[in-house]
Amino acid sequence: MLQLAAKPALLLGSIPRRAWRWLFRAALVAVLVPLLLQWVVAYLVGSDARILPPQLLAASNLLIVTAHPDDECLFFAPSILGVLDRNKDITGGLLALSTGNNYGIGDLRRKELAGSCRALGIHEQRCIAMDHPELQDNPKVWWNTELVAKIVHEHVLKWKVDAIITFDEGGVSGHINHRAVSAAVSHYAATHPDAPVAYTLTTTSLPRKYTLLGDMPLTALPFLWRILEALSFPTHSADPKDGVRALVANSWHRYQLTREAFAQHPSQYTWDRHLYMILSRYVWFNDLKRVPRIAGEGQQQVVAI
After folding, report:
1. Which of 166, 158, 205, 162 is nearest to 182 (CA)?
2. Where would you tag: which of 4, 84, 198, 245 has the fewest CB atoms within 10 A of its CB?
3. pTM score, two decimals?
4. Distance (Å, rounded) from C-alpha 114 to C-alpha 124?
5. Distances (CA, A) of 231 to 45, 213, 227
6. Which domains are delineated in the chain?
């Protein structure tokens, strides 16, 4: 038994000192590069038009469209806080298309949502959880696209919304309600003549999702040249093509607000959510893509890059 236990130690001891030095350097780079990028985007270039497009930062009324209460802080908090914190003239709104009543606690979750909105800087009058009979929390039911689009359009008109953020086609977690929201809002934003600009939150693979800041270098790669330009020549205006993507990172203060927002959802605070609030990239940073308009008569199509 002692001989077996000694074998790993012997193997480690056989690794050359030079190899250890390279391993240490690689580990140091793997830790420091994500931290540096997070700091740069959160504190130095986050307001630059090439990183956070004017379509979002200069909006008057921002609307976040989700499926259930708690989506706003589990997935969208960096975007909500990153936009509202940088422009106090923007009025934020949240439209959750259900009360999350899958386990019969919809009324409780609606009350919890109000507390989360307060933590995120969204006024209670614009913090809505719908309770439509055809839009109930159900992981097996695809919601009616036309109905969702109709409800979203009603709130766009009511609140004079000029920018929307919602899920992309993957729904971040793959939940069927999330993906249905994405399909409806994306179609509405692409085709309705009066629809405001809309951005979707990028879904990543499971390994990338739970790497804390480890996914930041890969996420920031398409923005690398823009980040360098923003560090050298800050600007509040940018080429229209730069408005197709956005990168928003939480500062430490905004991360604390994200945790405070989720703390308002005690019914959802299970042990795995404690880990999620540390390890998930979505509580640290968001990357967004603009929904392209479908070219029609007299329109030019916006091509996503």
Report:
1. 166
2. 4
3. 0.89
4. 6
5. 6, 21, 6
6. 36-288 (3.40.50.620)
* Tens-place pLDDT, residues 47-57: 999 999 999 99
| Amino acid at the residue 28 | L
Long-range CB pairs of 233-241 (<8 Å, 24+ gap) are 234/45, 234/48, 235/48, 235/49, 235/50, 236/47, 236/48, 236/49, 236/54, 237/49, 237/54, 238/48, 238/49, 238/50, 238/53, 238/54, 239/50, 241/305
Residue 214's contacts (CB-CB under 8 Å, 6 or more residues apart) are 30, 34, 281
pLDDT tens-digit map of 95-146: 999 999 988 999 999 999 999 999 999 999 999 999 999 999 999 999 999 9
- Residue that has been written with the tokens 């386990």 in this structure: 103
